[in-house]
Amino acid sequence: MTCRVKICGITNHEDAQMACRYGADALGFVFYEKSPRYITPETANSIVASLPPFVTPVALFVDANSDVIDSVIKGSSRWMIQFHGTESESECVSYQRPYMKALRIKKGDDVAALVSGFLSATAILLDAYKAGVPGGTGEVFDWSLIPGELPKPVVLAGGLTPENIKEAIKQVAPYAVDVSGGVELSKGIKSEPKVQEFISGAKCG
Q1: Boundaries of each N-(5'phosphoribosyl) anthranilate isomerase (PRAI) domain copy (predicted)?
Q2: Of 3, 15, 92, 127, which one is the catalytic site residue?
């Protein structure tokens, strides 16, 4: 089965269109003001309005209040939500949109038990744990911690690059992969050659 690809940390129209040209299945937009990849709801929704069909825009939040979330998702019916904080399942469901729950994995975690707490999710994103950092660490976690069978599709994140994407897919066989810093020129600005190489590696590897 072909692996899907989400390019996260999109901040401008040019990178969004470029990622789509190379076959990105989803684009991630970060609505966490402490992130160097933060984007305003207005800019993000203008980008979403220009996306081609069958590309899913994903709105990433970290323990955001409902007003912030609503200010984004009211701009388009296409939004999927990615909850990257300590949100409960009931909070995630309350917005009545498809959602992914991000789980930050470290040694000793019972991944299956963590996933079982979010069975209403469309997918579970597994990322590297780093104290005090909600995501975008650029670090790889121990993929052997991921059980072979989980009740939800797995989106693998954390330190993925064009150099390690084929091995990641070979070892984990995820439903999808998520990359941000691994395909950047600088924080929030994507590298076209890296995006092309990453997507090609994910889909043809």
Answers
A1: 5-199
A2: 127
